[in-house]
Design goal:
556 residues; alpha+beta; outer membrane lipoprotein receptor (LolB), chain A; 2 domains; ten-stranded antiparallel beta sheet; three-stranded antiparallel beta sheet; 18 strands; 27% helix; globular
Length: 556
């Protein structure tokens, strides 16, 4: 209780050195002890989780006008096994992570990115985060969104220690959870490299702050090739989202007895049975992927997509049965595909689309598959066909179309666009398709799909948009061809819910700020969530921490 009374005074006197009064120094010691204890409990608590981890790396090269721009990329998707430390089970096989480090000397020297090294950035220090190994310097207080934080600069007490964190931490001032840390690990050598990073945690309940986003970069290091990387974690408790959906269903009670028989016809005709069978296969696949955390639960983003699809259907006098639905794949890779009458777009694709007209161009192509009757196999209507190991998901599922089907869907999509509300308002759709086509060689892993075909960038689609029909027409000076990754959607890592970003307009955008398809830093607006019944308090977990030394992000 003594700390709680003195701490506000200490914060109010932020400009006064903490060592100015013995009482303040004592209070600081108590606060640091609570931070250390909470962080150690946090590490123990995380061992109960196995989130999905996605790391996307863009290698950079200098541009005279635009600064560092992408020139190659790497992608990793896996399931973390935090009970074993920082172990990862890859979900996508054949991921290559090696790249040349010294340009023309690449034949002699090469470097390999280690996905486990990026995952370790969720931890401040896996072996000895305490006052014996670190010194804490109070900086002040700062709000990260709605969360008031204490800010400390920390350094290892011994300069010879390797793998210790050096940088700044932000600590929420209620339970003393570290919610952000920015810096790097000490002790680089010629055999390994610890890159700079900015690691964020988000609140999933009263006593749960879960690692969610990590941004790392090296842009001025002569020892290694420059790059920027984003690491996202989600799927801590996807079953919790399903429980919430079930609990939100409204059950209506009536005083009248329920009739087991009705006077209306309820039998299925053969055609209706065939449609229902196909729908069952769609539902089974969507449910399986949602259970594994690869598909987001149905929510607001899906409704936005379905609104655009509805606009396309109404203006084209389409009455499609069963109705067309939309879902979102959780991954950053740019891809779209259909599962029967279900259109699926990846989160990364929705992220980079600059406007509604561009979204309509993508959805029109996929709607073309639906109109043409391009179905998926109904074998997934049998539940035993969904019993396979998670690591086999991307080998088991596949929704690619033949080149002939893709061409036919493109032409059908063009006809749909010509009659749509977007025919006279193309927005930046032509610019987006052109940018995607021209930048594909620089970001091959981002544009490589895992379940469907590449996003159609055919000139046939652009020709359906009036802006592309006028060679003299030039894009506006502030026109944005594509947004950077994370430009539209934010992820709730606890239950995989997706929401549209609500950010203020950025004003005029300079040419070097347009950064289409590029990796950018994370700046989160942190909030406190209501307590969740599924989250175990940190104090309930008692597991010894690994004595492992930190893992380098890369090695020769």
């Amino acid at each position: 209780m003594r700390t709680l009374k003195i701490l506000p005074v200490m914060l109010a006197l932020g400009a006064i050195p903490l060592a100015a009064a013995p009482q303040q120094q004592s209070s600081l010691t108590q606060v640091v002890d609570k931070i250390v204890a909470q962080e150690q409990a946090e590490m123990q608590s995380l061992r109960q989780y196995s989130p999905i981890v996605e790391t996307y790396i863009q290698l950079l090269h200098p541009s005279k006008d635009l600064g560092p721009v992408p020139n190659g990329d790497k992608y990793f998707l896996g399931r973390a096994e935090l009970a074993k430390g920082v172990e990862l089970e890859p979900l996508i096989s054949g991921t290559r992570t090696k790249h040349n480090m010294f340009g023309s000397l690449g034949n002699l020297f090469s470097m390999e990115f280690l996905p486990r090294g990026f995952l370790q950035m969720i931890y401040l220090d896996m072996n000895g985060f305490d006052r014996q190994h670190y010194k804490f310097d109070y900086v002040g207080r700062e709000f990260l969104g709605e969360v008031r934080c204490l800010v400390f600069d920390i350094d290892p007490t011994s300069k010879t220690d390797r793998g210790r964190f050096v940088g700044r931490i932000w600590v929420e001032d209620q339970d003393y959870h570290i919610v952000r840390f920015n810096g790097g690990y000490s002790g680089r050598s010629k055999a390994s490299y610890y890159f700079n990073f900015d690691s964020w945690r988000t609140n999933a309940g009263k006593n749960e702050w879960l690692p969610s986003f990590i941004y790392s970069e090296e842009v001025d290091n002569v020892e290694v090739k420059t790059f920027r990387a984003q690491t996202r974690l989600w799927g801590y408790a996807p079953e919790h989202a399903q429980e919430e959906q079930e609990l939100s269903k409204v059950l209506v009670e009536t005083s009248k007895p329920v009739k087991d028989q009705t006077e209306t016809a309820n039998d299925y005709s053969p055609l209706q049975a065939k449609r229902a069978w196909g729908r069952q296969a769609e539902d089974n696949v969507a449910s399986k992927m949602e259970q594994m955390g690869l598909m987001a639960p149905y929510g607001d983003v899906d409704k936005v997509l379905e609104t655009v699809v509805n606009n396309l259907e109404v203006t084209n006098n389409l009455d499609i049965q069963p109705p067309v639905r939309c879902r979102v794949l959780m991954t950053s890779t740019l891809e779209s595909f259909t599962m029967g009458h279900t259109i699926v777009l990846s989160r990364g694709l929705v992220d980079v689309l600059p406007d509604e007209a561009s979204l309509a161009a993508i959805l029109a192509h996929e709607l073309g598959h639906v109109v043409l009757g391009h179905r998926m196999g109904t074998q997934y209507a049998f539940f035993n066909r969904l019993r396979f190991e998670e690591k086999d998901t991307f080998r088991h599922f596949g929704f690619t179309r033949t080149p002939e089907e893709e061409q036919a869907a493109t032409q059908a999509g063009v006809e749909i666009l010509k009659k749509s509300p977007y025919k006279d308002q193309p927005g930046n759709a032509p610019l987006f398709l052109q940018a995607l086509s021209s930048r594909s060689k620089e970001i091959p892993n981002l544009v490589s799909p895992h379940l469907g075909n590449r996003v159609a960038t055919s000139s046939t689609i652009s020709s359906a948009l009036p802006a592309a029909q006028s060679p003299a027409a030039k894009p506006a000076a502030n026109a944005i061809a594509a947004l950077p990754l994370g430009g539209r959607i934010k992820i709730e890592p606890w239950n995989n819910q997706l929401q549209m970003l609500k950010s203020k307009p950025a004003g005029s955008v300079a040419e070097d700020e347009k950064i289409p398809f590029e990796v950018t830093p994370f700046v989160l607006y942190l909030t406190r969530q209501t307590d969740n019944s599924s989250a175990a308090p940190a104090s309930a977990v008692s597991v010894k921490s690994d004595p492992d030394t930190p893992i380098p992000v890369s090695k020769p």
